[in-house]
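Retro notes (design track)

What went well: tokenization of the new backbones is finally stable.
What didn't: we kept losing track of which sequence belonged to which structure.
Fix going forward: every design gets posted as structure first, then sequence, in one message. First example under the new rule, 105 residues:
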């Protein structure tokens, strides 16, 4: 259950990161409210997952899901460049996440 909770926390991190971008520096009300709401949900679920999972594992997986998800949102929704160097960086992050998951009991 902790892993499912952590996955949801990571997905909610992607939502709040994207809505933060849309908030234009917290000058637009709706994206700002969405950002704050999903931040609270994301942090709450992360905190719940940390009851069972080790700090290093939980935090690394959470930030990794957020980083890769936000990277993909940037490419596919915001039209950011998908250069070879950025793709390699994403592969390395995913490799680290897999290794972190495999190293936890």
């Amino acid at each position: 259950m902790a892993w499912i909770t952590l996955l949801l926390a990571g997905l909610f991190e992607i939502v709040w990161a994207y809505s933060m971008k849309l908030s234009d520096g917290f000058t637009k009300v709706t994206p700002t409210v969405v950002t704050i709401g999903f931040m609270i949900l994301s942090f709450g679920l992360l905190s719940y997952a940390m009851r069972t999972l080790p700090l290093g594992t939980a935090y690394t997986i959470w930030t990794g899901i957020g980083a890769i998800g936000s990277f993909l949102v940037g490419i596919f929704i915001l039209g950011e460049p998908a250069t070879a160097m950025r793709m390699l960086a994403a592969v390395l992050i995913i490799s680290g996440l897999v290794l972190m998951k495999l190293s936890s009991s």
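Added context from the reviewer: The mean pLDDT is 95.
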